[in-house]
Amino acid sequence: MIDQKTARLAAFIRICNQADGICQAYAKAHGLSGTAFYILYSLAAGDAVYTQKALCEAWGYPRQTVNAALKTLQRQGLVALRFSPGNRKSKEIYLTEAGLRVTRAVIEPFLEEDRKAFSSLDDAECAALISALEKYKGRLVAGLARRAME
């Protein structure tokens, strides 16, 4: 018989996987990979101008994964890359006209439901959820780093 903490961990992991599965299934139903979906989601949310490096840091994806998804999105005509002002090594990612149409039709409805679901939590629940997830992530990263050094 497993203890209560282990059961809660299993429930937490299951819920995280299910939530990601919802995103993955939605993306697939609209002809996008999960990574492409999250890139378009980031660009549609409009919270920042993204470079490939910034996307990798924001989503925790390997550089190769983001690069492959960006190349696909470029071939589909959904995104374009431009050199960052004052930095000829870094390129910013922008939605093209076709990309704007796709984000309006596919990403924005998902983003709206995402916002509604999160907004259904009160302020204390939102703060507690974010705080607990950050603490969990930080401790997991630290624990894995310690093990890697053993």
Brief description of this entry?
The protein has 150 residues and is mainly alpha-helical.
pLDDT below 50 for ≥5 consecutive residues: which ranges?
none
**Any idea what the CATH architecture is?**
Orthogonal Bundle
* Strand-pairing-aware structural class: mainly alpha
Order of helices and strands: HHEHHEEHH
Task: Give the end-to-end Cα distance, rounded to a whole number of Å.
Answer: 30 Å
The CATH superfamily appears as Winged helix-like DNA-binding domain superfamily/Winged helix DNA-binding domain
**Which overall shape is indicated by the principal axes computed on the Cα atoms?**
globular
Averaging pLDDT over every residue, what do you get?
92
Q: Got a strand count?
A: 3
Cα-atom radius of gyration = 18 Å
Q: Number of folding domains? A: 1
- Helix content bin: over 70%
Q: Provide the β-strand percentage band.
A: 5-15%
Q: Which strand order does the major sheet show?
A: 1-3-2
Number of helices: 6
What is the CATH topology? Arc Repressor Mutant, subunit A
- Under CATH at level 1, the class stands as Mainly Alpha
